[in-house]
Amino acid sequence: MRGRAAAGLAVGGVAGLAALAAIVVFARRGGEPAAEELLPRPAEYVKDVDQSESVYEVANGSVKKGFVKGVKELDWGKAAGGLAAGFRGTIPAPKSGKAVPDGWMGVREYGPEGLAPLDAQGFLGVLKEHLADWEAVERTTWRPYEFLLDPGGKTAVMGLHFGLGGRRAGGLRSDIAADLRARAVTEDGSLWRLDRVEWVRGTRLDATRTPWVDVTDEAGLHFNESDANRALRQSMIEDRAVTNSGSLVVTDWNRDGRPDVLASVVGGELVAFLNDGNGGFTRQMPLGLKPDEVARTYLAVDLDGDGLEELVGGTVRTDRGGKAAIPIYTRRGGAWETRWIAFDTPVGLRGVIVQALVPADFDRDGDIDFCVCNYSDADSKQQLFNRIVAYDGADNYLFVNQGGLNFTEESDARGITGTQYTYVAKWWDFDFDGDLDLFEGNDYGPNHLWLNDGKGRFTDAKDHIFDADTNYSMGVTVADWENDGTWGMYISNMYSHAGNRVLLLSDRISPEMRRLGFLLAQGNQFYERNSSTGEWRETSVSRMVNWADWSWACLFFDVENDGDRDLFVANGYTTSTDPTAPDY
Amino acid sequence: MELADPNTYRNFRGSWSGYERDCLFHNPDGREPRFVNTAYVMGLDFDDDGRSAAPVDVDGDGDLDLVCLSLQSLRVVENTSPRRSFARIRLAQKAGKPIPLNALVKVTAGGVTQQDYVRITDGFQTQVPMDLHFGLAEAKRIDAVEIAWPGGGGVQKFEGLPVDRLLVFREGGDAPSITELPHWPAESRPRVAPRFSTELTARTLAGGEEKLAAPGKPAVVNFWAPSCAPCREEMPIIASASRRFAGRVRFAEVSTDVADPAHVAEAARSFGVEAAQFLANDAVVRSFFGPEKLVVTPSTFVFDAQGNLRRVFQRPIAAGELEGLLETLLDESLPAGDQARLAWRLIESGRIEEALPYLEKAAREFPDDALVFYNMGIGLMKIGRTEEAVAPLKRSVKLDPGFARSRHSLAEALRRRGAFAEAAAEYEEAIRIRGDEYELCWGLGDCFLRLDRNEDALLAFDRALAMDRQGVAALKSKAVVLARLKRMAEAAALLRRVLELTPGDEEAAKWLEQMR
Fold this sequence. Notes:
The complex is a heterodimer. In chain A, about 15% of the residues lie in helices and about 35% in strands. Chain A is built from nine helices and 35 strands. By secondary structure, chain B is α+β, with helices and mostly antiparallel strands. Chain B is extended and about 105 Å long. Chain B is built from 17 helices and 21 strands.
């Protein structure tokens, strides 16, 4: 077990997790400049974060109450009231732009080319054309990632994500999403109107159907859904007493050929929903675990080669004497039996939080080993809340299968070291040399690529692009998503519009912090491998998959069986029941 | 924005990246290779606090559905995309070999070669199915499947395979086994999700008009008709469940055959169902089957006690199926471990009376859990029921003798009820476990004070004051001891110190006045 690094990288004068959340990401804006640049970036703007952000709250709130709300309510008078005298704006007509062939959805892309500035009436007229057959606007997005306040305090230039989603006649859905630049002006400091809007780039979608249907109720896949349970969960969410509460396992648990679902809540329960093959699921408590025995994460995999899955629990039982153990549940004669896999730990270790269990036969000896990704232990709390990079997380484990459900913990012996806040890992042959390497995705610090020497020993590929500086990585997925033989790896991180604005302004951030902030700027990451050179490059911005908010699950799969892979990202950190409550 | 306070996040109540909506980056055909977020138009932009997710064909219809576990709920979202060809590929282990993780599979069909690899973990904290799924668009046949087996298993190639099947390849095998996917029967799929209004009424067989629902109980609403053979087959199962759960679950039988109520009544009687008997009407049919009124018999809708739909069967129910579901509905109000958690949160927010029933349930469920009894004890103390608090606290200490907080609370409860010697012993044990703490030392001193063990009390108060030199209670108590020991000047000095710290302390002022 390698000792902890002495200290993380301090966040200068800006401290706290709040700061981290805010400074997480600086969005990249792509796209070419508009034909007529309505809004050149101002040479002078307010760089005091407090001043700029306090004006931002007022200005953006005012714009949202005026123009944006008017559009949402299809109240064109109100929308017009949100535009200032002398307004000029560019917006593409619905039939302009470029139609993108797609099997079953209308996709049209619009760049800035050829867009002439319109006055308020003309601008709203084009917007109305877009929404002509909409019965209601159900989604609005107006989220500035840039706010440059004129020192005089009367005008501000914004860069922002804009979006509208609504139902057309017959319930079909449409969506308009765009990067905009806009200028807001005020006379009295409270009422702000838009006097310039510049379309940078955008897309319109017209679905011919809405294929995803929530069938949880019909199928009976209910988990923790009584009123009392919901109230408890929500109170824990709002107090942020829970950040990730359990795991999901999809496997053929009862071996009847159909996929079943296991869901757990740490310290709560582990429930098996058995697919009845007839329209739903039947609930079972498979192991009869007591709440304090329920782990945060589980892995169902055959570890002893008998063709039956074991269940590995992501929990570490420790004593103060330097011994620890993790549970493996195995089927013996129709009943479940618990085996504890013991291993040595530093004396005094306790409170280890396990985030993931990731299997592979990395040493190619014909059995399944597994990596245990650990986030923190009881001594880890010091660096986390004041630093962007923290090395006081927890040691990861590598359990090497010795047969007969015996394992040895060999992470250090095989070269996998460090005590970071690990959320995820992926076994894959990243250097295409025929053995499995290990990608380690960490919160609060650099990720690591541990390269396998072919004999099951690892070295940290420190110069690899995957190891590049700080990340807040949560999930990872790998796919040849467009069938060109090129593999891509997508990593879910965090994106923050507020962090974007602040990072641009603050002159109190140290140069190193700013550098890290910009590295974090791209939100989620997408690395693609050039099959001819073998180089990996980061393409999340050009692929337009960097902005997915505070992301967790990320999965490539083919949604509509059209032969290429789409990408799903689940997101959101903690949501208050009160939609008017403030949000970081 | 001032972000200097590292505790800001602790005090912040609201959302933190709240209401964010999931993204589905669609890979459009023929587009310059960029994705576009289609989550809203495709119906997948949930605003839960998303965490885990797995693509899985739960209904076996050949496309991937999605199961999502968020902080709020577990969802299954069905993919109803138009049918297109696919290949489902399962790699089976050779006897004695491990599952073929990281095997590489290439599928060629319709002029396109796709590749994927075998894994069982993906994304975030999720185990995904090991089967690989390839969408094949309009291809009618798979030209080739190439498998690079891990662990030196070599590469195998198979040609000319059918689409839309489960293909199971065994390492070294000559050919895959080819089977249909096990799929949910079309008739098992509900056509609409009903809205179950508690105001919904229907005519009963007895002739009156009654509400279908009975608030506060789970409900089973079964649509049937005497002329429907599957309904008649199913009815003994419903009857059995209705008798077993009589009084705990509301059973409502709704006949879609309304022309001859007497015949319906006779048929219903013959099955012995313990249920309210109704005749369907337009509002009921619309509510359960949608505006098109596409009634399916038999159909059974199960609701929980809060009126939330929990399961739809649009097919005859199998034996045991309904009873199993009802058992979980009655049991699952809150898992026992969560009852203890909820109780603690209620105690923290001062809602003690609400917390106690949960604690009592948890105590029955976990008679060996020291924390449950500790929570019960301090909850009772907070509402002044100190006498009652002693027993659970003693239980907690007995279950976990090293649990210092529990000992402290027990000592406090004993002290409050005047059992000073017993309390002192608990304080001493808590101090032994946790070391000197102000509250513990003061409590111990107070016990000694009341037992007239003045010298011991003095020592205890000094230990308390070593922890907190401005501890008013300890200063005052020590002053009392000193006064008893006739050390008036020292006592007066302490009381003056108290008045410096809390000028309004009338007790200290009064004592000082008396000493003068």
